[in-house]
Amino acid sequence: MYEPPQFKSADPAIAAELMRAHPFASLISNDDDGFPFATHLPLHLEEREGRFVLLGHCAKPNPHWRYLQARPRALVTFHGPHAYQSPKIYPDLARVPSWVYLAVHCEVRATLVEDPAGKDALLKKLIGDHEPPYAQQWRDLGTEFQHKMLAGIVAFELAVERWSCKLKLNQHRPESHARMKAIYAAGNDDERELAGWMDRLGLGGER
């Protein structure tokens, strides 16, 4: 990922917050012909001894798990809030439109989780992220049904070997911040979230 220094964040807490707030990620690796292959999926983030680990699964008919088995190194991308940036945020007219966004990229090494108990534990973590009450319904469905469902997926752990976090919020153009934040604060969900991040980073005169 291209990271001009003004947009680069080296804070693991910020990267973790973005991955947890926007867990629907893209897992990208190479297929058997060497062409990039992508699967879009939710991932659960854990921190183990100061390192990130991502947990997820795909349907068994999806060939991606075989690609991970053969070539464990892969890329995971998370996209946070993003929005169009109008040139009207600037006091002068000699400006062009752009796009602002927050993103995290992770270089990972995959390990398949193939035993039913391990897959069940992994699924419960994803359930805990998105709908904790469903855990009881899952238990009540019975062992036979659970094993049938678990047989239809392949789970994996993705150990993060390196990560990068980009916060592209026009940090290098302070003359635009007040107007930009005012527009986003009155906008859609993504735009309001971006305005909150501007406050957090001290852009636009507020902290």
Layout of helices and strands:
Layout: E1 8-9, H1 12-21, E2 24-30, E3 36-42, E4 44-48, E5 51-59, H2 64-70, E6 73-85, E7 98-113, H3 116-130, H4 134-140, H5 143-150, E8 153-168, H6 177-185, H7 189-200
Antiparallel strand pairs: 1-8, 2-3, 2-6, 4-5, 5-8, 6-7, 7-8
Helix pairs in contact: 6-7
Note down, in words, how this protein is organized.
- This protein has a single domain (5-84, 99-172), classed as Roll (Pnp Oxidase, Chain A), CATH 2.30.110.10.
- The chain contains seven helices and eight strands.
- The longest helix has 15 residues, at 116-130.
- A hairpin with a 5-residue loop joins strand 2 and strand 3 (36-42).
- Helix 6 (177-185) packs across helix 7.
- The chain has 207 residues and is α+β, with helices and mostly antiparallel strands.
- Strands 1, 2, 3, 4, 5, 6, 7 and 8 form an eight-stranded antiparallel β-sheet that branches.
- Helix content is 33%, strand content 36%.
- The chain has helices spanning 12-21, 64-70, 116-130, 134-140, 143-150, 177-185, 189-200, and strands spanning 8-9, 24-30, 36-42, 44-48, 51-59, 73-85, 98-113, 153-168.
Keywords for this structure?
single chain; Pnp Oxidase, Chain A; 7 helices
